[in-house]
Amino acid sequence: MKKINFFILYFILVNIILAKENFILPIVFYSPELGFAGGIIFKNLDKKETMLISNKISSFLTTNQYKSLNYNYNIKYFNNSRFNINLNYKDWLYDYYLNRKIIDDYNQKIIQIEINYNQKIIKKIYFKYGYNFSKIKINNNNFYLEKENINSSGINFALNYENILIEKNMKNGEKLEITTNIYNKKLLSDQDYIKNTFDYRKYFNIKNNQIRAQIMIKDINGEVPFYLKYDLGSNTLIRGFTENKYLGNTFIGGQIEFEKNFNKRFTGVLFYGTGDTNDNFDNIDILNLKSAIGLGIKYIISEDFKVRMDMGFASDGDKNMYINFSDAI
């Protein structure tokens, strides 16, 4: 049985100029659970007369057969509209928890496709709509894993308020996004359910350093397998808790980060997160939320492409390390 508690990570930076619009950056890391791993991150930027087109790829493969691949295609029109396609594949081993105790592990393979268009309505107000598809395959013969294969297909709508200025890779301002995802059998989804999300973020700078804050509330209306429920721990929110240990149809949480700039490439991060998840909001005690603290380091490649490593320590004694290629908030 494998449990990912930490990574020992190092990056081999090739002799390239990272300020260029096109680059390939190899990565190498190791952990006893994953084994040795290698991969690449790639970015291509193409400026047109009316738009800015970017392609990003991140991928790695480990000797213990963990696999991850992500591709992102983004068009930013100079009228402030945006079009985005995100493709994700992951082949991973997870622990299965019952009453907060590990009783087994299982392999999960997931393919995700997200297509979104963000249209400016009026100044600082955007309307986003798109399509989401995911195909999940669970490899385990135990009955408690419920449905072992599921397709989720649905449409999403979001209303965004965004008032953010970016200077020297630092944000200043705020943004709010309210999203509804509708999954329906008529859209070729195996199950009918609706996801609602409230996400508010605030950014401000103090003497060339940055503070970020976030509040998020999420809810699922409908019955879904455990592996589609909200997770308390992740690489972007409430970092520190082990994945799949706390699951539910509702989630409420928040976090705050302080980022110290060492130079134009390297920053250090301190963060604190608190929240909880359960089957409904009535079972969440706002005065007794779970919490986690941590620290991390970030290497800035470009404004929208960063290599981040965080170590989180949860209030239940869990500790986990996370590797990502974007900001947490």
From TrEMBL:
It is found in: Membrane. Pfam families: Omp85 (PF01103). PROSITE patterns: BRCT (PS50172). Signal peptide: none annotated. Keywords: Membrane. GO terms for cellular component: outer membrane. Residues 38-110 form the BRCT domain. This is Surface antigen-like protein. It comes from Hypnocyclicus thermotrophus.
